[in-house]
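Lab notebook page, bench 4
Experiment: in silico fold of construct C2
Operator: M.H.
Input chain length: 129 residues
Purpose: comparison with the prior construct
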Amino acid sequence: MEDRTQHVLTAYERWAVVGWSPDPRRDSHRIADFLEQRLGKRVWRVNPHAPDALPDIRAIGEPVDVVDIFRHSDHAGAHVDEAIAIGAKAVWMQLGVIDHLAAERARAAGLDVVMDRCPAIEWPRLPQH
């Protein structure tokens, strides 16, 4: 299985962080800020229960390259299916988020898949750093 981590981090600019928390102590909050402030990505925060976020990725209304999933593994498949439906180019499942069947569906639909990884950990490991 080919590792697409570097490609996803460097090639794609528009990220939807699904499961984002407004609490700055939460990883989803910190990673959204990291993607936006450190890497210069366009980031949409998605959480139907957070007043400062979009209710779902369909509400974004413009192209999304990467759907970054901060949900429990048993919810990841639904978000992978949403990513496929909106024409995203990749799905990124955060540390501890593992759904092999959903990953296979995404690959079969032509999406790049990164699973059980964190952008803030992977970015410094890239060759240019």
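Observations: The chain has a mean pLDDT of 95. Residues 20 and 26 are 8 Å apart (CA to CA).
Next step: discuss at group meeting.
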